[in-house]
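User: I'm designing a mutation panel for Ras-related protein Rab and want to avoid disrupting the core. Could you give me a predicted structure to guide residue selection? Please restate the sequence first so the numbering is unambiguous.

Assistant: Good idea. Sequence first, for numbering, then the predicted structure tokens:
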Amino acid sequence: MIRRRGPEEGGYYLKKLQVEEDSQSNNGEVPEMTERLFKVIIIGDPTVGKTSFVQRYVQDSFRRDYKGTVGVDFALKILKWSDSETIKLQLWDIAGQERFTWMTRVYYKDAQGCIIMFDLTNRSSFLNTLKWKKDVDSKCTLDDGSPIPCMLLANKCDLPHRQVDQLEIERLYKEHNFTGWTETSAKEGLMVTDSMRFLVDVMMRQKNDADNDSEESSLRLTPAEPELSRTCYC
């Protein structure tokens, strides 16, 4: 379930995933581990905190003295998703400077998920998220031709003097087909792991749906029963 924390809870408009884990007995047998690999691109204007976000998520650390990304940096995060599934996340931290944008088609290739980040204290970085979203949608799609899931992250929520209000973010998220959005702080570690877990869950659902569709199209010999629709209340 995806829920929005409202003002009555004293919080921000945060999209947070409630993950339900089913415990299943394996009757003493060691389950066979399945390994899945996902490539996630992290994009946005320079200095919005992309590198700090990756460092916080992968190493649980924060550095004030970092150098701007040149081209692209890579990081790997391994998740034990369940007793039978391990996920390897390839995180591509892509530079936001204009001189590197001509390479984005190469950087985006085979990506299955995306994070577009902006700085809550820098309004132009928020306005430019639409440019980044259009760039991703035009260059990168899933196997079925649909856009890759894309999270909108409003970073530096620990800082005062914001230049973007929550209603503007909510409107952009709804109008431009973002998968979800949340405020984050790479410095304080706020909603970093939660936002990534939400994105991974979306990618896993899409991967499982694609696998099921492929199996049904090649193996099913009788008409399929109607599938119940899955609804997320946002």
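For picking mutation sites, this is relevant: The first strand starts at residue 2 and ends at 4. The domain at 9-15+33-207 is CATH 3.40.50.300 (Rossmann fold).
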